Amino acid sequence: MSRTALRICPLCEATCGLVLTVDDGRVTGARGDRDDVFSKGFVCPKGAAFGAVDSDPDRLRTPLVRVDGELREATWEEAFDAVAAGIRTVAERYGPDSVGVVLGNPNVHTVAGALYPPVLLAGLGTRSLFTASTVDQMPKHVSSGLLFGDANAIPVPDLDRTDHLLLIGANPLESNGSLCTAPDFPGRLRALKARGGTLTVVDPRRTRTARLADRHVAVRPGTDALLLAAMAHVLFDEGLADPGDLAPHLDGLDELPAALADFTPEAVAGACDVDAAVVRTLARELAAAPTAAVYGRIGSCTVPHGTLASWLVDVLNVLTGNLDRPGGALFPQAATDRTPRPAGPGRGFALGRWHSRVRRHPEAKGELPISALAEEIDTPTDEGEPIHAVIVVAANPVLSAPDGERLDKALGSLDFMVSVDPYLNETSRHAHVVLPPPPPAQSPHHDFAFNTLAVRNQVRYTRPAVPLEPGRMAETEILARLVLAATGMHGADPAGVDALVIDRTLGKAVKEPHSPVHGRDPKTLADLLTGENGPERRLDMMLRLGPYGDGFGADPDGLTLQKLLAHPHGIDLGPLRPRLPQPLRTRSGKVELLPEPIAADLPRLRAALDERPGGLVLVGRRHLRSNNSWLHNVPVLTGGSNRCTLHLHPEDAERLGVRDGEPVRVKGAGGEVTAPAEVTDTVRRGVVSLPHGWGHDRPGTRTRHAAADPGANVNQLLDGGLLDPLSGNAVLNGIPVEVAPLTAAVTETFEALT
């Protein structure tokens, strides 16, 4: 029998509402939900392929446990027995930091991934945390922490009301947006132009987004911070800096002109390969617009000065008076955010509270660089024990982190490894235990993380569209049991994990003077929670304590889980609103425009004024039908333009003797790969581009479609030695590479051997 069910798409950051067609317990179709309060019917190819993703025959259905060197199917009880024995043995023998935790970005797309990893980390007490953030967005977290005192206080462009949008290192027509949750990002950009607004794109490639722009600036990769610093210099030099109503909330404004004095348009022009007049025009247009927003993304983060570039994005928003105002860049307010506290000084944001063992990388936001994971496993030092065991949740760092060959070997040397993953992939193939979550249709969905980055305040929740199949275990229960097994409580009721979190959260809330439940009895409050299970009760608690919540009866019109369930297409909470100074957690209680770590890193940026790369440099690129390494096993999402080819400019191709479609060798500091050449003038001269997430050619995996067309692992070109020092983020863009036709490369190798 056929029916329909609602589901929020978990396949990218746009979080579009879907209407699924379900036949006999199987998803057979997916279309956009026209009644969804946020996405209003928009759907991209990934969302339309939800059923194919959900029913991929290579998804694991039962746990795997390694016996005599081979992974074999096991019961859930056997799997968690093995986890408890493996993790506890290592932790008790070598200490908590000997257990590493690796979290991939699918965690922020699931209810389970949002609710349980923090409990796992607290229970383990390990400082060996590595996440996908340090190959993606950590510079933005660090700059926000330093500017605003909260690493998660990230302003997003007010896309629907701005008059002028400057995108740097972002390609939302392919990515659907990132650190800016916006269903139909392309449509919003077209609407901006239709209402007379201006779109400027800074990118070394003429992307689909750049082709839509009024102005495209093909900057040299890795020089984004120099360009932004020069724009800020122009604003000061020409008297265009005008923070307006922001002025009372700013600290350090008077010091900025001197700090940026060396970054004139003429000084940066050579390094950026952008004419000084163009730099001045960009600054003047930004200042002259009635409202404007600067938005930087992964291309400006995964470079040597990623934190400085992220900082300067918000400095420009401040200097033009566009931070925290409609049409500019504002702080979203999610329904599950903490109860807003009164404005005032906070604890601030600290970097380097501890360091990695081998190269002494400072932590950022509680994390160590994932580029350092291999060395933390395979390199002994006098500074403590290496990592002996790893818990990997929804991550494939062998493909997504630098120097996958070394990490591949390091993971194979571990005493114990457990992987929570639906696939036996390049990373999970090393695990001693694999715990497979069910397909997404069998899980609930609420966007805890992405609603804090949404371009409109709203709240939505969908229960599982399809019941759990026999033999499956809910992802929330898997992670709750993992918490118990890894922290010495194996065998306890997994519902106790949720109960413990609820008790602690309510116990803290009743002591906070600004909380709507101040002075009340936490046990009485817990009894008021509704929901079918522990995760739903936790969601109900967060909604009720949040900025729109009912405060457990204090505001009868406020949000609860029951009210949300009564609105299956979501509840619109209105456009983004100015919130300063309430979100600030700095010690001064103000936006700290020139924090000490930023000032200390500016000399490194000044040195870059004289840098001129010789030869070719590499950048990545996104595909609309892909999301890192997730979706390459889904045939409907891997055809057409979704190809792992090396883009290079026709003039570079001619100089190198490269022909379109023929294989080339690409060599970097970490190794070399082979990929087909795609000669195109969409990439600027001196730049080549290879997409991220490919390289599905290792033995022992069970992703048949991906393995049939594996592509090349671009991160194998990196040795992990290049990092943004403030954030620990890997440098993935603007790295020097050598390119040669494969025939020439073979000849060269033969001559070297003989």
TrEMBL record:
GO annotation, cellular component aspect: membrane
Ranges for domain 4Fe-4S Mo/W bis-MGD-type: 2-58
Domain of life: Bacteria
Alphabetical list of InterPro entries matching this protein: Asp_de-COase-like_dom_sf, MoPterin_dinucl-bd_dom, Mopterin_OxRdtase, Mopterin_OxRdtase_4Fe-4S_dom, Prok_molybdopt-oxidoreductase
GO molecular function, one term: molybdopterin cofactor binding
Keywords, ordered alphabetically: 4Fe-4S, Iron, Iron-sulfur, Metal-binding, Oxidoreductase
Signal sequence annotation: none
SUPFAM superfamilies: ADC-like, Formate dehydrogenase/DMSO reductase, domains 1-3
Descriptive protein name: Anaerobic selenocysteine-containing dehydrogenase
